[in-house]
């Protein structure tokens, strides 16, 4: 497709060609709704450009359930490494007639007088009746402003810039944050023989397997991944929760920070300040490690209850026993031996280019299952948009299907964003529930 987009009109413009945008495109195709997908880079760019060399999924491959393209490889219980994930997305694009335009950034979104939207891009301005924003859950690398006080000779990277231990200068490394990225990067450095100092936050952990199966398989059976956000008392808090840490590396295993400490990694509480060449930490290491273990053991309790209630035949398994405890908590470390800091402190979103009043006071889009209060404007791929899987490979298909059904029914009803719609277009052929159930069967 030509990249001169000036004056082009599409029924739907999808912004973002990651798994969420591509899934939406697949469903729009099935519904016969004309559209275009704008991608500033290439599909898979987030995985290709912002993940480290040893990166792999923490969710098993069988959970990769993009619509029409479930994982079909030979290792459903394994965990795709970075380049395999990129290939999975590239193959997805090739698997259907995706009207994808690469190398185009949407720079402004406005409502159009009389209905619909104007999408200004680096390659001209196009118009659309509907816009689906699939620009990703993790857009802007976040670093605390403490970073400004790190001595100038210490190399600083965000987790999205970290590649491998050899790319850091020789010497000790301070990793800040123990979400998925921080724990896995700390492990990567630790396995390479680097002295790691790890500032441990309050993220929970989950065991890789329990009573003979991957914990993800148990939780899937227990319906955890299908629980809607509306079932939780405090949706906002659920959406802000840190992910549980665990790894898919080398076939998958627990991440046990206590075991790392036993083997020489230095653990601290939350980083609170950097001043006078010292990094200072809160006295919460014991609490954070205990909390992570308690969450993990609590998940095992719920699996035990499920096994009991269903009479499942599963082997018994002894519970976790801490292999190390902090003793006196170190409150500071001298930065003179530390040559690099890896900030694993998460990501934010940048929606400033979206000139439509659908955001709350914190800049979070107000929506119901991706459908905003502005008719015709949708989000997809937000963490916990509807379920745990919304921002992941396992749940985005359901959300794409929901949004496209919504778009199709809006058009069938003859009112799409205030624009009268001419009846009799192929949306009537939108696939049945049976179709979707069939395509979601694990390969
Ligand atoms: C460290 C890490 C580990 C993860 N591990 C897992 C895992 O094990 N399993 C799992 O299921 N999920 C995992 N995820 C979550 C999720 O699957 C990924 O974040 C995934 O990339 C989300 O897909 P997406 O399509 O919503 O967004 P993205 O992949 O971020 O895609 C958004 C796309 O939009 C494009 N874009 C953005 N703005 C514009 C614009 N203005 N104009 C044009 N294009 C634009 C970007 O270039 C990008 O290609 C992980 C995430 C992270 C950060």
Automatic annotation (TrEMBL):
Cross-referenced InterPro entries: Auxin_biosynth/cation_transpt, CHP04046_FMN-dependent, FAD/NAD-bd_sf
Tagged with keyword Oxidoreductase: yes
Keyword annotations from UniProtKB, A to Z: Oxidoreductase
Listed SUPFAM superfamilies: FAD/NAD(P)-binding domain (SSF51905)
Classification via PANTHER family: FLAVIN-BINDING MONOOXYGENASE-LIKE PROTEIN (AFU_ORTHOLOGUE AFUA_4G09220), FLAVIN-CONTAINING MONOOXYGENASE
Protein name per UniProt: MSMEG_0569 family flavin-dependent oxidoreductase
Biological source species: Lentzea rhizosphaerae
């Amino acid at each position: 497709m030509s990249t001169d987009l000036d004056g082009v009109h599409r029924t739907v413009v999808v912004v973002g060609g990651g798994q969420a945008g591509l899934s939406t495109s697949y469903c729009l195709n099935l519904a016969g709704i004309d559209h275009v997908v704008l991608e500033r880079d290439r599909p898979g760019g987030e995985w290709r450009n912002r993940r480290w060399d040893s990166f792999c999924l923490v969710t098993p491959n069988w959970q990769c359930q993009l619509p029409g393209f479930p994982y079909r490889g030979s290792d459903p219980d394994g965990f795709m490494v970075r380049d395999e994930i990129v290939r999975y997305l590239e193959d997805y694009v090739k698997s259907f007639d995706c009207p994808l335009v690469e190398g185009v950034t949407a720079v402004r979104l406005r409502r159009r007088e009389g209905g619909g939207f104007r999408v200004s891009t680096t390659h001209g301005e196009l118009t659309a009746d509907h816009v689906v924003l699939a620009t990703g859950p993790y857009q802007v690398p976040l670093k605390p402003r403490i970073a400004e006080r790190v001595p100038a000779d210490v190399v600083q990277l965000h987790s999205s810039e970290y590649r491998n231990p050899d790319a850091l200068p020789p010497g000790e490394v301070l990793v800040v944050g123990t979400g998925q990225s921080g724990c896995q990067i700390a492990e990567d450095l630790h396995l390479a023989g680097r002295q790691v100092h790890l500032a441990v936050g309050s993220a929970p952990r989950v065991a890789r397997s329990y009573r003979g199966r991957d914990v993800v398989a148990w939780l899937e059976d227990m319906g955890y991944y299908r629980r809607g956000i509306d079932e939780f008392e405090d949706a906002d808090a659920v959406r802000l929760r840190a992910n549980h840490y665990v790894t898919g590396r080398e076939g998958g295993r627990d991440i046990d920070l206590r075991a790392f400490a036993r083997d020489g990694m230095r653990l601290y509480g939350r980083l609170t300040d950097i001043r006078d060449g010292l990094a200072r930490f809160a006295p919460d290491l014991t609490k954070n490690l205990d909390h992570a273990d308690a969450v993990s053991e609590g998940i095992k309790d719920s699996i035990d209850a499920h096994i009991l209630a269903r009479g499942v035949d599963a082997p018994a398994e002894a519970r976790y026993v801490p292999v190390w405890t902090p003793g006196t908590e170190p409150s500071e470390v001298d930065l003179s031996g530390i040559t690099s800091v890896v900030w694993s402190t998460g990501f934010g979103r940048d929606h400033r280019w979206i000139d439509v009043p659908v955001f709350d006071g914190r800049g979070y889009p107000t929506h119901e299952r991706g459908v905003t209060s502005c008719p015709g404007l949708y989000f997809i791929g937000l963490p916990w948009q509807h379920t745990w899987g919304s921002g992941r490979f396992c749940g985005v298909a359901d959300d794409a299907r929901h949004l496209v059904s919504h778009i199709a029914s809006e058009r069938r009803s003859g009112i799409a964003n205030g624009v009268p719609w001419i009846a009799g277009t192929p949306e009537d052929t939108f696939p049945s529930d049976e179709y979707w159930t069939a395509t979601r069967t694990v390969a």
